[in-house]
Automatic annotation (TrEMBL):
NCBIfam families: ACC_deam_rel (TIGR01275), PRK03910.1-4 (NF003031). The active site is at S75 (nucleophile). Residues 10-316 form the Tryptophan synthase beta chain-like PALP domain. Its EC number is 4.4.1.25. The modification N6-(pyridoxal phosphate)lysine is found at K48. Pfam families: PALP. Gene3D superfamilies: 3.40.50.1100. Belongs to the ACC deaminase/D-cysteine desulfhydrase family. It comes from the Bacteria. GO terms for molecular function: D-cysteine desulfhydrase activity; L-cysteate sulfo-lyase activity. Keywords: Lyase, Pyridoxal phosphate. This is L-cysteate sulfo-lyase.
């Protein structure tokens, strides 16, 4: 594993801290640590920064002048892609899918959407259920037709190139834990478009660090999520020249905490947001890190992590909180 072989544009503030969560640890009865990837920088930070370093590297290798990507209306990936494009003088074409169906004014105009506009991205909105891969191709064709050079980034930045960012994060966690003499029994992360989970699994497998990763699903059912993560982890290992190093058993997702659906919040998520905020001053988001914490809390209370040292990967997303004022304010 030698990541300097890959083109990379530095965007992130690295390494992000690995810190204890003393009050949540006491509340939940485990030794809980947090990997602060909400502090990666780039429009407020989050997990897409690490992926975008390698994706922009690839875009510049292809002499692209326009980034094209897609996401849900309150996509953090879109916000961070728009910021990366602005910072590097690239145009940015965005397709937003009305995946949650929410028409609340804060959902469609505040939070990430406000920031997308601030960064000067061109936004187009399509109904929920639209074929987003086809929309990406359509937009790329339009850019080409006017003489531009598009670089298409899949939703969430989740392809083997983007996942290299989380191969690097796996290395970073192991180095930090070793420096702290901290034996990590498990890493817990939100898992959505799969690049974060897959990059971690591939990175740990290639390093030979046998730390299990538990992905808490935010959208797809378990079988589909695990299949997506495994496929991408295998492809990522192959990109590293390490074909066959990832095994199916290394990919574990728990998708019992999705609730009503992607981007839809429930009392369990609000309880997780308030517990993290009020015990350790941590801001989570309603779509990803808050759902992952909802799962972690439930599993911890059921005794699942007894005696374990667990690292919770904070993947960011706090900017999306401001798209959910309507849902959250009544529940506090
Ligand atoms: C995109 C995102 C995730 C999920 O990461 P994937 O690589 O898409 O699985 C988790 N948390 C936040 C805040 C995100 O924006």
């Amino acid at each position: 594993m030698h990541l300097a072989r890959f083109a990379r544009i530095r965007l992130a503030h690295l390494p992000t801290p690995l810190e204890p969560l003393p009050r949540l640890s006491e509340e939940l009865g485990l030794d809980l640590w947090i990997k602060r990837d909400d502090c990666t920088g780039l429009a407020g930070g989050g997990n897409k920064t690490r992926k975008l370093e390698f994706l922009l590297g690839a875009a510049f290798e292809e002499d692209a002048d326009t980034l094209v990507t897609q996401g849900a209306v309150q996509s953090n990936h879109v916000r961070q892609t728009a910021a990366a494009a602005a910072a590097h003088g690239l145009a940015c074409e965005i397709i937003l899918e009305e995946r949650t169906g929410s028409k609340a004014t804060d959902y469609v105009g505040n939070g990430n959407v406000l920031l997308d506009r601030l960064f000067g991205a061109t936004l187009r909105t399509v109904p929920g259920g639209t074929d987003m891969v086809a929309e990406l191709e359509k937009t790329a064709a339009e850019v080409r037709a006017r003489g531009g050079k598009p670089y298409v980034i899949p939703g969430g930045g989740s392809n083997p190139t983007g996942a290299l960012g989380y191969v690097d994060c796996a290395r970073e966690i192991v180095v930090q834990a070793d420096d702290l003499d901290l034996e990590v029994h498990r890493i817990v992360t939100a898992t959505g478009s799969a690049g974060t989970h897959a990059g971690l699994v591939a990175g740990l497998a290639v390093m030979g660090a046998d730390i299990p990763v538990l992905g808490i699903g935010v959208r797809a059912p378990k079988e589909k999520q695990e299949a997506n993560v495994f496929k991408l982890a295998e492809e990522t290992a192959a990109l590293l020249g390490q074909t066959g190093r990832v095994t199916r058993e290394q990919v574990i997702a728990d998708c019992d905490y999705v609730g009503e659906g992607y981007g839809l919040i429930d009392q369990g998520v609000i309880d997780a947001l308030t517990l993290a905020a009020r015990l350790d001053g941590i801001v989570l988001d309603p779509v990803y890190s808050g759902k992952a914490m909802k799962g972690l809390i439930a599993l911890a209370r059921a005794g699942r992590f007894k005696g374990e040292t667990v690292v919770f990967l904070h993947t960011g997303g706090a900017q999306g909180l401001f798209g959910y004022q309507t849902e959250i304010e009544g529940a506090l």
